[in-house]
Design goal:
The protein is mostly loops and 87 residues long. The protein folds into 2 domains: 38 residues, no CATH class; 47 residues, no CATH class. 0% of the residues lie in helices and 11% in strands. The strands form 2 sheets. Strands 1-2 form a two-stranded antiparallel ribbon. A hairpin with a 6-residue loop joins strand 1 and strand 2.
Length: 87
Amino acid sequence: MLICEACGHENEGRLCDECGESSPAQARFCCHCGRELGPAREAGGAEPGQDPYDLDNRTLCTDDSCIGIINEEGVCSECGKPYRPEG
């Protein structure tokens, strides 16, 4: 969790694999060491060390008009809709 210096609100964060410090969840780069955080574990189904863009290791959003990927919480990374298996 990250604490806002202005208001004290707790914000979601994600840990950097390089330095172990927390950056905002939406950050593309670590705020402390500058390493690119990339899509990492938020991008549906990829295990650490696997390419999250590998078609064999991700689940696409079932909304035909969306380009998102289903994340660990079971919702689309773009539109936020819950995953509904086809069938």
